[in-house]
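Exercise 7. Given the encoded structure of a 359-residue chain, write a plausible sequence.
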């Protein structure tokens, strides 16, 4: 049962609930906009106004610590769950730039653990909405009541949720051996957080290295994969051939997706960007001749740029002695498996037989 003092706080809460609900809307919207504007992909942005039952439970346990409702800083609670540990601090900096922070009441749980301890890790800011961000003269409490923003990683959130459910909500003291298991799990999750961040950093370093090698033209040093192919294509290496083929009929070039040609180049044996470059240099003229054979007697005034890459690959395969079955498999890769690929392969094979380079 609540004493008279705590009951008065509960009555004040019921009266002011609409204020906190309005605060929730304002804070949540600004948090989401901040994160979106900075281009940070987070696991979740959550918010809630404490329920009457939850507040009553808090007052039963700690009511003597509060003189009035405004002393309770988590009536409105928001949480941003990130994927990486370094993004917690990025979110914190964004929050600091927008909201007024009560530094005396804010706490960084990450710094409260000793070196040999593992457990709850989260950054808690106690905030107010500054008038410069939002102001309503009819409701000054919007800028007076404080609220809490928690920031932590997804793995920290998993541990916190498990610990909260097992060690707090039940109302039963948890045996030490179970708490020890939870703390061991906290150590594993902390290690996983560090490893995820390390791996991401190494991948980003690798991508920057690939981009630098591609930009410098060191194609033989770059293994062919999704990242390197994307960087290579940004150089627009096939533009001159595409323009030359389009010039046959003074056609417009349709900028279709060239991504499937990553798998096509891999299938025909390319292992580095240097292999693609050699195919481009050695087969471009013959690919043009094949395109000329296909287009010269037509009045097509628009061609897809992928047709030029198709002919480049087909010419290379022809010089390696491919057959119709291999051509059909190639078309399955770039066009997706369909019944027309066999007909397309047969037609291309006939065209190749009429060209000198295929002999």
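Solution.
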């Amino acid at each position: 049962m609540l004493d008279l003092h705590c009951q008065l706080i509960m009555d004040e809460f019921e009266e002011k609930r609409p204020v906190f609900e309005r605060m929730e809307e304002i804070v949540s919207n600004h948090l989401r906009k901040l994160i979106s504007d900075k281009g940070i992909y987070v696991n979740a942005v959550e918010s809630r106004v404490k329920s009457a039952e939850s507040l009553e439970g808090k007052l039963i346990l700690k009511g003597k610590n509060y003189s009035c409702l405004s002393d309770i800083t988590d009536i409105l609670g928001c949480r941003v769950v990130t994927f990486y540990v370094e993004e917690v601090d990025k979110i914190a900096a964004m929050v600091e730039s927008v909201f007024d922070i009560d530094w005396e009441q804010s706490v960084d749980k990450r710094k409260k653990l000793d070196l040999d301890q593992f457990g709850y890790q989260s950054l808690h800011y106690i905030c107010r909405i500054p008038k410069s961000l939002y102001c309503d003269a009819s409701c000054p409490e919007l800028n007076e009541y404080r609220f809490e923003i928690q920031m932590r990683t997804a793995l920290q959130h998993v541990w916190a949720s498990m610990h909260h459910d097992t060690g707090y909500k039940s109302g039963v003291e948890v045996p030490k051996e179970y708490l020890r298991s939870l703390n061991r799990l906290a150590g594993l999750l902390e290690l996983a957080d560090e490893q995820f961040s390390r791996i991401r950093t190494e991948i980003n370093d690798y991508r920057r290295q690939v981009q630098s090698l591609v930009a410098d033209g060191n194609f033989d040093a770059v293994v062919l994969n999704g990242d390197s192919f994307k960087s290579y294509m940004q150089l627009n290496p096939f533009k001159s051939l595409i323009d030359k083929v389009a010039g046959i009929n003074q056609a417009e070039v349709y900028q279709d997706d060239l991504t499937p040609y990553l798998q096509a180049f891999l299938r025909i044996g390319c292992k580095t960007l240097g292999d693609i470059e050699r195919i481009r240099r050695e087969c471009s003229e013959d690919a043009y001749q094949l395109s000329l054979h296909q287009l010269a007697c037509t009045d097509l005034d628009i061609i897809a740029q992928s047709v030029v890459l198709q002919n480049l690959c087909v010419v290379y395969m022809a010089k390696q002695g491919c057959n119709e079955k291999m051509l059909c498999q190639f078309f399955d890769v770039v066009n997706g498996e369909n019944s027309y690929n066999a007909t397309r392969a047969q037609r291309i094979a006939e065209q190749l037989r009429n060209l000198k380079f295929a002999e």
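Remark. Residues 221-358 form one domain. Students should compare their own answers with the one above.
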